[in-house]
Amino acid sequence: MSPFVSLPLALVCAADFLRVDLNSYLYLSALLFAIGFFGVLLRKNTLVIYMCLELMLVAATVALVAFSRYNGTMDGNVFVFFILTVAAAEVAVGLAIIVALFRRRQTIQVEELNALKN
Amino acid sequence: MNTSYAQLAHALQPEIILADGAVLVIAFDLIFGRHRPLATRLAASLALGALTLVAAFIASVFVGPIGGFYGESFVLDSFALATRGGVIVLALLTLGVAAGAKVMRNPAEYVALILFATTGFTLMAAANHLLIAFASLELASLSLYLLAGFDKDRRESAEAGLKYFLLGALATAFLLFGFSLIYGMTGELALPRIAAVLAQCGMSPLPALALVMVMVAFGFKAAAAPFHLWAPDAYEGAPTPSAALIASASKLAGFTLFTRLLWPGLGALAGDSSHALNPGGWITIVVLLAGASLLIGNLAALAQTNLRRLLAYSAIAHAGVMMLGVVTASLAGPGPLFYYLFTYGIATAGAFGVIAVLERNGGCQKITDLAGLSRRSPLLAGTLAIFILSLAGIPPLAGFFGKFTFFALMLRIGGIASPTGALTLLAIALSAVSLYYYLVVLKQALVEPFASEKPTRIHVPAATALTLLAATALIIGLGLCPSLLLTFF
Fold first, then answer.
1. Min Cα separation B299/chain A (Å)
2. Fewer CB atoms near the end CB (10 Å): N or C, chain B?
3. What is each CA distance from B110 to A60, B242, B298, B355, B368, in whole angstroms?
């Protein structure tokens, strides 16, 4: 067999071998969600917490796209566009609040945010 | 599928008016308000905002209950219509509170954000599709985060905004993940079609996970224990009108959205509440949230010395009662739930209105700051007494009737001996506990003398006085004739 024939064939076989099923995407999505959630719980820097929140949104995005492909409808893909838009708006709002806080307090560490108490 | 844009534009007239009004308020301020004093700009913005809200209310009455539209993505039944009107009325009360509160920089943006949040609330009331639910919830939430952190002169405000934002965004992430799992199970996003698919397949691990995710988000947004930690900080640090809006209209819209999501949408997964030990379904989670909120809210409120934090813990306790209303919504329809949410919103917004006026006249953080209020301003003391007594559930005020209906319905589900009956007895016992901290507030306001010899009179702005009187009239009127609202359903 000449190499010109076997190369595409090998690629096809490799693609078949690499074909990822729905469960793998869901595991990835759950993993991303867990990393994000524990980041939110454990990190002390507001900006890093904020990045972890975005990671949780991305986890939902991955699951939606995978489900959309699996279900054969476009709804999930359309949903993702809305999530991306809302996440951008959330960045604007979140960073604005963080900047306002930094101007008043010169810190963004959560353990120093203790002005509000009984 | 019927997706007519003309019908969409017709049915969403109130939202179009609200969004246009918000832009108009900013534009008017930019063009005419540049070199005028802050108080004038605030008055103009508030007047324009109030006009917009009244126009939106008239438009919403004019549209009427037209049922599902735009391919069942929205629904305008009596519940949606009532919530739409209710949040607009509560937003009007918030503007009245803002008229009496401390004047902040950028008043036009503040009013515009209130209008944008109201747009989100009215859309939440009509959402019948996961995508619409998500987008409208975010429109409302993002506006509320900004409103909470709006006062740039006070360091507490930014901190309250950040805490509210971080926990709210966390709740959103949970909600989205739950939505994506629901979409994965059913392949649908519209609630009626999700319900049709779910009716055929029962409970399994994946729907259970999706339910837990959605319920966590519900707990955060409703400030139900154990997801309540943001509420006391947000209520304490946020500017007073923002706190009033977060406590009143956002609760009404949030509970409407989640009741629609849970009963018509995920009703197949509700489980059987009268079944003693294993109801199986989201009713279990709602009942647990209700019990935890009632306990934590009422007991922690006893220890508060800060008036706003006390109102926050009272809000957590009330969220527990509202959760009981969600459980009973299958029995009696959404009417009693709406009645409770609306009257609770009026009473809380009114109480924050009193706090706002006091704050402009020298600060009101501690409960003891209320001392001598009846001498300083009989109007404020009298309306505060009505609001607090309604929150405590004293007949004949509106708060009593709402609580009474829920408790009676809960007992009808499984009798006294069942878990729901035990929860009801707990709720009744804790209502008695709550009377203590509400009366502590009233004792300060009505009985205690003012600290110094000569109490200074408090001047109440006309718009705020009118708002407080209107709220009092609503509380008394709806308490005496609940059927005024309930016949609507």
1. 14
2. N
3. 32, 9, 33, 19, 30
Residue B458 has pLDDT above 90, yes or no: no
Please give the single-letter amino acid code of residue B207: P
The 8-class DSSP code of residue B34 comes to: T
Q: Enter the ipTM.
A: 0.91
Q: Count CB neighbours of B428 within 10 A.
A: 15
Tell me, yes or no, if B169 comes closer than 8 A to chain A by beta carbon. yes
Residues forming a β-bridge with B74? B69, B127
**Nearest CA among B1, B271, B286, B281 for reference residue B129:** B1
Give the tens place of pLDDT for each residue, B356-390: 999 988 777 889 888 888 888 999 999 999 999 99
* Global confidence as pTM: 0.94
Task: Give yes or no for residue A19 having a pLDDT over 70.
Answer: no
Q: Do B177 and A60 touch (CB under 8 A)?
A: yes
Tally of structural domains, chain B: 1
**Which residues on chain B are in Cβ contact (under 8 Å) with A49?**
166
Q: Give chain A's end-to-end CA distance (angstroms, integer).
A: 81
Question: What one-character DSSP code corresponds to residue B105?
Answer: S
Domain that holds residue B223: 5-486
- Between CA B184 and CA B197 the distance in angstroms is 12
Q: Look at residue B275 and give its three-state secondary structure.
A: coil
Count of Cβ atoms closer than 10 Å to residue B123 Cβ: 24
Handedness of CA B39, A97, A41, B252 (dihedral sign): positive
Q: Partners of B67 in the beta sheet?
A: B76
3-state secondary structure of B228: coil
Query: Is B184 in contact with A33 (Cβ distance < 8 A)?
Result: no
User: What domains sit in chain A, N to C, each tagged with a CATH number?
Assistant: 3-112 (1.10.287.3510)
Closest CA to B14 of B140, B125, B130, B112: B125
DSSP state of B457: P
For tokens 């009645």, name the residue.
B339
Task: Say whether residue B158 is in contact with chain A using an 8 A CB cutoff.
Answer: yes
Three-state DSSP class for B446? helix
